[in-house]
Amino acid sequence: MNEILEVKNIGKKYQSKAGEVQALKNVNFRVKKGEFVSIIGPSGCGKSTLLSIIAGLEEKTEGEIYIEGDKVEGISSKIGYMLQRDCLLEWRNILNNTLFGLEVKGIKTKENIEYVKELLKKYNLYDFANKYPSELSGGMRQRVALIRTLAVNPKILLLDEAFSALDYQTRIMVTEDIYSILRKENITTIMVTHDISEAISMADRVLVLSKRPGTIKDIHKIDFEMENRTPINCRQSPKFSKYFDTLWKELGVNEK
């Protein structure tokens, strides 16, 4: 796999009533094409801030972001971003919700519309194309939100606690669905989560941030040595508890 993203020496400072605060310091890592990377760390360590900087939604104080070898400043069309809530527009049907990003970018072409319809068919949502968000389950809404994001053909998908608004059982099933879609579409993904189990079950690597100022404390390769890997069968693997214990202890050290 070729490297698609490089985060180089990223730092972030901001002003508060108490003075200058260093949120992130000297953050460095690379992501390969098609890789799934999870980022975890103690509360307030700058996980979501880092994701916002990569997305171009927040300015960095120092450092550079490179996508496919090109230095990026600001928002890049190569990046898609999913937040905690699906943010579907309740007055638009499902098809029109998935087309919204194309409209915003001015690329609602016949070809792109057909691509979205194919995604809806592929992931069992086309029968609901004329339904409205209120008529769908939480899990289906998240799938719609993902297809809306994939409609603009991003090279990298950023997930910021994207499943945290769901109840536990739904969350498990949605991560299964989303993981399957991302693997089939070969989308490079970076996910911020506070859920260690979620991070392990979905990621090829887990990046651990230190307490503030956040920096990369460690990077753990996750390999369950299985074919047809899914988040659920990863959770059932004997290796899962070993990964969990390692990361739990590392976060415990961070919080002292």
Global shape: globular
* Poorly predicted segments: none
The Cα radius of gyration reads 18 Å
Average pLDDT confidence is 91
Share of helix, binned: 25-40%
Spatial separation of the terminal alpha carbons: 37 Å
- Count of beta strands: 10
Strand order within the widest beta sheet: 6-7-8-3-9-10
Strand proportion: 25-35%
Structural class: alpha/beta
Task: Please give the structural blueprint.
Elements: E1 3-16, E2 19-32, E3 36-40, H1 47-55, E4 62-67, E5 70-72, E6 79-82, H2 94-98, H3 100-105, H4 110-122, H5 138-150, E7 156-160, H6 168-185, E8 188-192, H7 196-202, E9 205-209, E10 216-221, H8 231-235, H9 238-254
Description:
Helices cover 36% and strands 26% of the residues. With 256 residues, the chain is α/β, with parallel strands linked by helices. The strands form 2 sheets. It has a 6-stranded mixed sheet, sandwiched between helices. A 4-stranded antiparallel sheet has the order 2-1-4-5, with helices on one face. The longest helix has 18 residues, at 168-185.
Summarize the structure.
This protein is an alpha/beta fold and 256 residues long.
What attributes characterize this protein structure?
alpha/beta; 4-stranded antiparallel beta sheet; single chain; 256 residues; 6-stranded mixed beta sheet
